[in-house]
Amino acid sequence: MEKQLKWKRLGWLGLLASVLVTGCDEAPSANRQEDTCAEPMSLRVEVMSSDGAYIQGASVTATNLESNVSITGITDSRGVTTAINETLAPSPIRVVATAGSHVTHAERVEWTCDACHCTPVPDTVTLKLQD
Description:
Blueprint: H1 2-22, E1 44-48, E2 59-64, E3 70-74, E4 80-81, E5 93-99, E6 102-103, E7 107-113, E8 118-121, E9 124-128
Parallel strand pairs: 1-9
Antiparallel strand pairs: 1-4, 2-3, 2-5, 5-6, 5-7, 7-8
């Protein structure tokens, strides 16, 4: 009986030690500094039909006008994608959307950059599909 009680106590101590050790992982903590430069800034793109309905599943492509590098995203159930991000900066980009055989006019977006991020100007673009 005494042996069983000793093992139970050691089991609790082992559990307590494992809880204390797991506190040293990389999980978020109120006392840790967050790297605000790590997450890239995104352009919000909304795609609408010619009658104003938001379009799910539209393909949105942004192309850097100097390097010709592109990023493509697909709109969600609200007709929005945030896949276009500052990795295309600092040069201006051209943004266009397609859904089936329908295409939007291209919109130009500039970037304003600081030491940490490049922010799209404007930060939201609404593209309307042409009939």
